[in-house]
Design a protein that fits this description.
Blueprint: E1 2-3, H1 11-27, E2 32-37, H2 40-44, H3 56-65, E3 70-75, H4 78-81, H5 85-96, E4 101-105, H6 118-128, E5 131-135, E6 139-140, E7 143-144, H7 147-155, H8 159-166, E8 171-175, H9 182-185, E9 191-194, E10 204-213, E11 218-228, E12 239-244, E13 255-266, H10 273-291
Parallel strand pairs: 1-2, 2-3, 4-5
Antiparallel strand pairs: 6-7, 8-13, 9-12, 10-11, 10-13, 11-12
Helix pairs in contact: 5-6, 7-8
């Protein structure tokens, strides 16, 4: 059983799940993950933004792609946060789950006041008879992989650096809502989406892959996206607007996955509609060039554990 919040499911997280997969195979057991919903920081620090790299639906899909057989989604509340480390081990890991082995990252903390750590867990494992495996820090170029670094890169307009930590392009998943049809009037019909509980990346124009999700599959298209408030038209809330290349059809109400590949430029206000259209033409040309020869996202899969 791998324990953690797993926001973003970056390469460090996959190292933990990969170790759990190895143990499950060796012991003839099932690969499981225990995580929390909502993210504990939202309960422990009420003023903290609820925006995440991978909201619940995204996290569940990513974990399934990793081959998780058992997903234990533990409701995190103020009352639960008062459980001591001892109570968490005894009541959840032992009595409720009956774990045979648990795997955690080197900095895993749990229990009231974050009193429990990997050393506490190792002692508890000896007491209650379950194995404990601690995964050493994972990173590159002298820096550890972390969800915080991913958020920082996204908010600085660096989706490629974020992807290097995630091991995949960062995505926003949302349903298309009705807009003001402004893009269609300009010759660039867009699928408009709200960020809701997703992290909002730096405002600007991006080359993206856009996946149209159906019950059978996800159909990917090269696209260009705008993140921001559209200064020409003074939109209040930041929106995600995506123009799919070479796509015919109605996207209203459909569920889309938007994978951020490259940053193109910051959002800006133009002197005229004609100047805006000229820039949109150039943005589309650049986005096509950036995406040419690249591939849309694929499932993570178990093979990603050893990256």
């Amino acid at each position: 059983m791998a324990l953690g919040n797993f926001d973003g499911l970056h390469l460090g997280h996959r190292g933990v799940i990969g170790r759990a997969a190895e143990l499950a195979q060796a012991e003839g057991g099932s690969l499981g993950v225990l995580t929390f919903e909502p993210h504990p920081i939202m309960v422990l620090r009420p003023g903290t933004s609820s925006r995440r790299l991978s909201p619940l639906r995204v996290k569940v899909r990513r974990l399934r792609e990793c081959g998780i057989e058992i997903l234990y989604m533990l409701p995190f509340s103020h009352a639960f946060s008062q459980k001591t480390a001892e109570e968490f081990v005894r009541e959840v890991l032992v009595d409720e789950l009956g774990v045979r082995s648990v795997v955690v990252g080197h900095d895993y903390r749990f229990g009231k006041g974050r009193a429990g750590d990997c050393h506490f867990l190792a002692r508890a494992g000896l007491e209650f008879g379950f194995g404990v495996s601690v995964v050493s820090p994972i990173g590159s170029a002298g820096e550890l992989y972390s969800s915080t670094r991913v958020r920082t890169y996204l908010q600085c307009g660096e989706p490629r650096l974020a992807a290097a930590i995630l091991g995949h392009m960062w995505e926003v998943e949302a349903r298309v809502i009705y807009g003001d049809s402004r893009g269609r009037e300009l010759g660039y019909p867009t699928a408009n989406m709200e960020f809701r509980d997703h992290v909002i990346p730096a405002h600007g124009i991006y080359a993206v892959w856009c996946g149209v999700v159906s019950s059978q599959n996800t159909e990917w298209h090269a696209a260009v996206a705008n993140v921001g408030v559209r200064p020409m038209f003074e939109t209040e809330a930041a929106m995600l607007e995506v123009h799919l290349f070479d796509y015919e059809g109605d996207l209203y109400g459909k569920y889309l996955r938007v994978a951020f590949s490259n940053w193109i430029r910051p959002e800006e206000k133009f002197e005229s509609i004609d100047a805006l259209i000229t820039q949109m033409n150039e943005d589309s040309r650049v986005a096509r060039f950036m995406l040419d020869g690249s591939q849309p996202p694929t499932d993570i899969g178990r093979t990603a554990f050893n990256q």
